[in-house]
Amino acid sequence: MSAVQTTSPTQDDTRRRSPMADVFFSLMRSRTFLVGLVIVLFWVACALFGEHFAPYDPLADDIINALAPPSSEHWFGTDQIGRDVFSRVIVGSRDILTVAPLATLLATIAGTALGLLTGYFRGIVDDVVSRILEAFMAIPVVIVALLAIVALGTSKATVIIVIGLSFAPIIARTVRSAVLAERELDYVAAAQLRHESAFHTMFVEILPNVIPPILVETTVRLGYAIFAVATLSFMGFGIQPPSPDWGLSISSNYGMIGGGFWWTVLFDALAIASLVIGVNLVADGVHGALND
Amino acid sequence: MTNSAPTKPAKAENALELTDLSVAYRVAGRNRAVLRNLSLNIRQGEAYGLVGESGCGKSTVALTVVRYLPRNGSILGGVISLDGQDVMKLDAEALRRARAESVSMVYQDPGKALNPSIRIGRQLTEIFELGGVTGQAATDRAIAMLNRVRISDPPSVMQRYPHQLSGGMQQRVAIAMALANDPSMLILDEPTTGLDATVEAEVLDLIAQLRQELSASILFISHNLAVVSNMCDRVGVLYAGMLVEEGPTDVVFNDPRHPYTVALLRCLPRGGQRKDQGRLDTIPGFLPGIGADIKGCAFADRCALADNRCRTELPPLYDLSDERGKRLSRCFHHDKAQALPRATPSDVATAPKPTTAPVLRVAGLNKTYASHGHPLRAVKDVSLDLRPGETLGLVGESGSGKTTFARLLLGLVPPDDGGTIELEGKALAPKLENRGDDQVKAMQIVFQNPDSALNRSHSIRHILSRALKRLAGLSGKAQEARLDDLVRAVRLTDRHLAVKPRQLSGGLKQRVAIARAFAGDPRIVVCDEPTSALDVSVQAAILNLLADLQSKEDVSYIFISHDLGVVRYLSDKIAVLYLGRIMEIGPSEEVFSGPHHPYTEALLSAVPQLDQTETARIRLDGEIPSATNPPPGCVFNTRCPRKIGPICEQQEPPLAEAQPGHSIRCHIPYPELARLQKAVVTEPA
């Protein structure tokens, strides 16, 4: 009778809320999720409308005021050519918040398709594809990035492709294990007894039921993707100057720390950290709500 | 008994006394009543059965007695007195001691009650160590306990882990653990529900024998009325957390005085009832939800006898004690409860079936799996045929190959080379993808578990429309019209179409699954234990539906069930499987009434029956042998109570025709079987 609190098989229909409503209410009660959401939404707002409330043009130099410490005029100080760090941090969220989600989206789509294929067909398809994916996972992102830049040149698109393809195998693995469990359920046999195509069975029958683990994996991957984008920018492989991108700013200013000009780096670093933490809090909340 | 018990017996007389007990679960910020002013007594040494549909609060009673309610459950009022001790007043330490010493519980699933990573011996000795007995003394007592529950070779069992034991053995161990400290009160919560009929019979026999040896009182919770009727002295019928009827078991079941008890008993196919002799009665409507606001009689909405008074005023527990014992009924109309009109008319129109060519013909079907390098013959050399409008019942213990056989027919699993399956005279390809669309739609299945069989992401409308599109080739207006018919045929309504499966009850979900199977006018529908997860009242409705659809559509069924009463109700023909082989096949009535194969005899004898007079019961020893290593000769020889000699171990008997259409795989000649079984079988021929 421990199931009493949720369902009783003798109850009539329509008493219970839909699963999506359950998840929504559960999210709204999760403090983790709400805090994360506020942080993420703050940065999204900055990315969309940053230039309207940034006090200065993030790209305008002002050599006379270069390397000014934080003050009432320049809250976060200025960098080596006098650009306002506060304005640059605000507007600097734009590139990372375009590139990281697009990369994650690409990884999710590719990973889901691969996961469905390997989990559904099993056997030889699974063996071959899974070994290739594992080999791919063994290569560090940076190496892949170097190769891609040689082949495709540096651009945001390259970063999206590099990160998307690097993360796809990880998502594929999660989806595959969910599909393997789903495939054993009788509704899949029922679909086969209607002579449904493999495509229909995978994408119409199975896919909707593996959305929850995909959603969790996607939010978790988004956190990693933000980090990866920042890393690649820092290394000069990703977003190019004069973008006020955080990783790029840290890269061009970190030599200054030795001279005591900490403000040129600290605020960008904090921005990256807060966004990653925010996304991870959201991921935790989603995970909790879906596994209640 | 709060207001009608004439004299309150002295405390020591009762092992358990519940007085005016009310329990609620807190759900979504509201307290929802689960038990409402429940009072009952269990005398020392008495076995008391508690029956009712799922959701009526049976298990909550068990959990409340030992105060093991889930965190959101609370006892709102009443007194629980265990052996004269008020459980509510015990502090944590005293409660722990009471649980350790005077009351024990055995749960439904022994696999979950035993710790999977600790050896049986350790789990048993631990109990004695808590009581201060250690070392060799504890081991000796553990061995004595295992001997007591009739486990042979206890020292070797103690070395094993729970997963290395069969379900029946696990439940014996769980019972041994429960009895370890010689409790005064033993609570059994559906102790045999997950077990095969033969294993269930063993466990019930064990409990019955232990009752003779021990002084413990028993609270026996079950949804299975037949089990309770065989095991218990007195029975209480629970409905929506209220006791609606109570009395000596045989009196309550033979002369019920509450409409709910009457209705429950009518739902069961009894005394060899068959589909062509009438439909089963059903109970309309649903159990009130947890915490529903009940003004009058809780059963009034589903009761054809209910009048205005029933809906507004809670009936008291009338004392109907007579010379047969003390009994109670919570019904204003207890005197005419048995006149409860049927909810489902019994009459059926049956036209005699013309004998036609078989719709399905199976010859020499085999399926061999590879199990750790050894061949595992899941289905061996099965041949049979099925006529239009006929039902073939498949029976046998779990592991006998019933489900594998069904999957071979459907093409979900390809059979070994050599056998043939013919549908309406045309050979079927072994693999589903090589079969024609018409062949695929002609054979459909209703799965055991509708939660697994219905896609939880899709609405009922989507599920059925898709089936109509693929199986009947309908779209647009024609599809909608057919959908309407289909929904009405399985007695669902339009409002069920918009929801997802999880918003429906088990019975409604199974109706959707049946509708889906019938979407393309199939010739054959495989029903794989379609009612085993359902309450008896819902089971009756589903069985009626299947019988109605069959007489209307002339469809054939292959009906798999471990419930022989259900199989008998629906089947025209029965095949008994053991280790993948057909041991007996023949017309339903002949297989049931005998003479039959010794295995069939044992299966039938294992089933607890409501109207059972004490018969010599046949018990099968041990477990079904592994299919990777079947016994030589007749595969049943290791457990056969009628084994005649070495021939059984050396030579596999052929499936020989004993009567026209009735074949038995046994070395004992048919007339000899008839002579042997006449003495034992009390089944009316």
TrEMBL record, chain A:
Name of this chain's protein: ABC transporter permease
UniProt KW keywords: Cell membrane, Membrane, Transmembrane, Transmembrane helix, Transport
Topology within the bilayer: Multi-pass membrane protein
Family annotation (InterPro entries): BP-dependent_transpt_permease (IPR050366), MetI-like (IPR000515), MetI-like_sf (IPR035906), OppC_N (IPR025966)
Lineage of source species: Bacteria, Pseudomonadati, Pseudomonadota, Alphaproteobacteria, Hyphomicrobiales
Gene3D superfamilies registered for this protein in UniProt: MetI-like (1.10.3720.10)
Similarity annotation: Belongs to the binding-protein-dependent transport system permease family.
Superkingdom to which the source organism belongs: Bacteria
SUPFAM superfamilies on file: MetI-like
